[in-house]
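A brief tutorial aside. Many learners find it easier to grasp structure tokens once they have seen a single protein encoded end to end. The record that follows does exactly this for Adenosylhomocysteinase. Read the sequence first, then the structure, and try to relate runs of similar tokens to stretches of the chain.
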Amino acid sequence: MDYDVRDIKLADQGKLKIEWAEATMPVLRLIRKRFQRQQPLKGVRVTACLHVTTETANLAITLKAGGADVRLCASNPLSTQDDVAAALVQHEGIPTFAIKGEDNTTYYRHIESAIGHRPHVTMDDGADVVSHLHSKRKDLLRNVIGGTEETTTGVIRLRSMAEKKVLKFPVISVNDADTKHMFDNRYGTGQSTMDGIVRATNRLVCGSVVVVVGYGWCGRGIAMRAKGMGADVIVTEIDPLKGLEAVMDGFRVMPMEQAAPVGDFFVTVTGNIHVIRGEHFAAMKDGAIVCNSGHFNVELDIPALEKLARKRKIIRTGVEQFTLKNGHRVSLLGEGRLVNLATAEGHPSSVMDMSFANQALGAEYIVKNYKMLEKKVYPVPPAIDKEIARLKLAGMGVSIDKLTKEQEKYLASWEMGT
């Protein structure tokens, strides 16, 4: 079997971690049992470019249980858990191409290896496989019947491709599922981002000023968790509705120009480029800590920070300190990459349970319906979204009410009023 991992001897350690995560992924576990019986992905070649973590491992195992021929590579050079990658190879027989800290050349070589079996279905977190197929490996496009996309940044790229009529196959936007973005983005990103910051720095959040750049679902979650830890939270936004929502949620809202001199911690979650720029770094107080929890590190203008610095050094694992020409020290976490994965372990498995259930069922939907789909980005069908929510509640031991016949009739009628 073809694979490329750091050390295959880490496999037993990784297997235990995968089992630990699986214990709080009841939805994916139920899907796996059905997949084993029904084999809906039998003979389907799936290339998955995702964060190689314990949760992703359980998704890959589920896809294989459904009959898929799965190959996995990393969607970020710093997010791989090397023991998990080894376990997937050694214990599950899933070709995996991922090494934590891999350079750019290795990253794209791993993508090439992952598409080496000529995939029918792509599974992306950031659209790198789709982009690579459309730009570098057009010869493989004729095999692809569809794909799924995990994150906001990837969906933005795919919608741009669809609008420009260059997207060659349909893609399901897993990120737009309510059971993904309302939970994974908010609760997962909120907790894991603060976890990454604390693990990397061991700084006290309570009493500090945390600047959250962007108030989408991820920004909401981070602001909520930082506030819960005792921080004074500032939000920066470009959208007046989101800015207003942040004010109504009890946060200070201001432009980055005003936030830069007062923040102790800065976290970007916008999906856009250079939202913290040179002029902002130059205005920061001594000791400011900057990180990114969006998919790509371009949210931070790192080249501008490097130009402002008169010296730089790795002061802790995952922490690079830049001493600016004015003497102020600004620390960058995790090379500006996803801080929750670069310096921590990513989202808790219980929330990824829903996200990866969407991935598994999205792949099944593509296989069943691709002939009827156009070459564009589709939302997860509402029936799948609600079924995942139902299964999650059941897995948590929570019951909800059902409509009575009278209530169903009332909701379907127009005759009954005040």
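Self-check: The chain has a mean pLDDT of 96. If you spotted this yourself, you are ready for the next section.
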